[in-house]
Specification:
The complex is a heterodimer of chains A (249) and B (312). In chain A, 29% of the residues lie in helices and 32% in strands. Chain A has 249 residues and is α/β, with parallel strands linked by helices. Chain B is built from eight helices and 16 strands. The chains are: A alpha/beta (249), B alpha/beta (312). Strand 14 of chain A pairs antiparallel with strand 8 of chain B, so a sheet runs across the interface.
Chain lengths: 249, 312
């Protein structure tokens, strides 16, 4: 069974971004970049399925400028077998990414596609579901457990009220939630090995996909600031202030 | 111009996020319709009819809509989408699951987690865990939107008098099947709509100790939440998680107990009206957003707080 995993290069989760002074976006120059944390979980899950003997090949896919190769090398250092970069300088919105992934799906015919449930930069939470729709495949989003069974997969999903489990026919699309697994650290020998693994480059044009952005960003602003608060000396003062000043209890 | 709000419900009751989504829809200026798709969902449809500002309730009652499965629901919404300029649903795990499917089938962008409607084609949404707010304009013929429920007042749950109209079920490929749900049972208010939320973090130390946070929540009539660290460590179930990728809350009072205040947690609660932080580390980032910070050992402060709240 072949598994496709999608990985995105994003500003590292520990970095607090700043809005550009001309309000055109956020400042991303010279910031630490990493693989989107949910995508690391996706790669890890694919590797686990391969280690368990359920999968035979893992193909990692990323999209964006040439530097996204780094993210693909990380995925291969974790254990992906080969990689595909769809190289473009155009800003890719979720619908465009889903269309590009769909085009790759038609070439690769994986039984399972695993993606992070959302990227921590645009926080859209759309791509997996959109890919499932375009490919007319079932979806198991926000997965905290994945179990292959016969010609299907059972996915336990994190939902607002707790958990639910759905059975999907393969091929299927899965998006990962935080509790699915803990991604492994990459080791130096594996980083070296990853450099020799195949990385194929394509373009939106070669895949025949129109990636023109559908949403126009008019401006990006700082969120409203909270007024600075104060420390209280003890529990008595806290309760008194909540009662008489804030009037919330 | 008309907007369609997809109701979140359990076939009997309408979930509160639907009311916030209706409220966002009324800001668009056109008629608001609500789709109730379920099975034996007459009670939910009757409740939807009562929602203030709703002109029409459309009901699809068929077995494949019983569990709100994304594949079936998206196909249904697409079958009536062309009648609308806007399609909205709450940005809950329900809405986030199926709505991007609708957008892709319509070949339009989705605008996720909208916090403000500027005009019928321009919306504000948070990016980078709420550290920036983007104003985006859509040129698509149908705008597909998930609504951040905390950003819009709830529409009135009663007093409305919408007409009711059945919708024929769409062709269904039955690609997925619900095997079961394990829902967290609690007497406490729901996190999303609670006036007071008490949350515990890594500092609480264990699932056993987390009961102390629960006692404080009960004393305050509050919903109980948790940071990602507390959920990952198994102190609390996944559905308690407040943060960028968990639940977004904005209660009148948020009490953070033993929570350091990572960017990802702040993203889920920084719009609360009043924030209280109890943490023994005076440098914890949570104090930067707290209106009232108490530097103290939570194992002393929380029991003391519980007994102080008893005094009038």
């Amino acid at each position: 069974m072949k598994i496709l995993v999608a990985v995105k290069r994003v500003v590292d989760f520990n970095v607090k971004v700043r809005v550009k002074s001309d309000n055109s976006g956020v400042e991303t120059a010279n910031l630490k970049m990493s693989m989107n944390p949910f995508d690391e979980i996706a790669v890890e899950e694919a590797i686990k399925l391969k280690e368990a003997g359920s999968a035979t090949e893992i193909v990692a896919v990323s999209m964006g400028p040439a530097v996204c190769q780094e993210t693909l090398r990380s995925a291969m250092a974790m254990g992906a077998d080969r990689a595909i970069l769809v190289q473009t300088e155009v800003e890719l919105q979720p619908l465009a990414v889903a269309k590009l992934l769909h085009a790759i799906l038609k070439k690769e015919n994986p039984q399972l596609v695993i993606l992070g449930k959302q990227a921590i930069d645009d926080d859209s939470n759309q791509t997996g579901q959109m890919l499932a729709a375009l490919a007319n495949l079932p979806q198991g989003t926000f997965a905290s457990k994945v179990k292959l069974s016969g010609d299907g997969v059972e996915v336990t999903r994190e939902i607002d009220g707790g958990l639910e489990t759905v059975a999907l026919k393969l091929p299927a699309i899965i998006t990962t939630d935080l509790r699915l697994n803990t991604p492994r650290y990459v080791t130096l020998p594996n980083i070296m090995k990853a450099k020799k693994k195949p990385l194929e480059t394509m373009t939106p044009e070669s895949l025949g996909v129109d990636v023109k952005p559908r949403l126009k960003t008019l401006k990006v602003q700082e969120p409203p600031k909270r007024k600075p608060g104060a420390k209280v000396a003890d529990v008595k003062e806290l309760v008194a202030k909540l009662r008489s000043e804030a009037k919330v209890i | 111009m008309a907007a369609l709000v997809i109701a979140e419900h359990d076939n009997r009751l309408i979930r509160s996020g639907t009311l916030n989504a209706v409220s966002a829809a009324t800001k668009l200026g056109g008629e608001v319709h609500v789709l109730v798709a379920g099975h034996q969902c007459g009670a939910a449809a009757a409740a939807a009819k009562q929602i203030g500002g709703v002109a029409k309730v459309r009901v699809a009652d068929a077995p494949q809509y019983k569990d709100g499965l994304a594949e079936s629901l998206a196909a249904l919404v697409v079958s009536i989408a062309k009648e609308y300029t806007h399609i909205l649903t709450p940005a809950t795990t329900f809405g986030k699951n199926f709505l991007p499917r609708v957008a892709a089938l319509l070949d339009v962008a989705q605008i996720s987690d909208v916090v403000a409607v500027e005009n019928p084609d321009t919306f504000v949404r948070p990016i980078y865990a709420g550290n920036a707010m983007a104003t985006v304009q859509s040129s698509d013929r149908i705008k597909v939107i998930t609504v951040r429920t905390t950003a819009f007042d709830a529409a009135a749950a009663s007093g409305g008098s919408a007409t009711v109209e059945p919708v024929a079920p769409a062709a269904d490929a039955a690609q997925s099947k619900m095997l079961g749900q394990e829902l967290t049972k609690s007497e406490r208010p729901e996190l999303a709509g609670a006036k007071i939320v008490v949350s515990g973090g890594r500092g609480v130390g264990s699932a056993e100790n987390f009961k102390l946070v629960g006692q404080l929540a009960d004393k305050m009539g509050a919903a109980l939440g948790a940071s990602r660290a507390a959920v990952d460590a198994g102190f609390a179930p996944n559905d308690y998680q407040v943060g960028q990728t968990g639940k977004i809350v904005a209660p009148d009072l948020y009490v953070a107990v033993g929570i350091s205040g990572a960017i990802q947690h702040l993203a889920g609660m920084k719009d609360s009206r009043v924030i209280v932080a109890i943490n023994k580390d005076a440098d914890a980032p949570i104090f930067q957003v707290a209106d009232y910070g108490l530097v103290a050992d939570l194992f002393q402060a929380v029991p003391e707080l519980i007994s102080e709240l008893d005094k009038k």
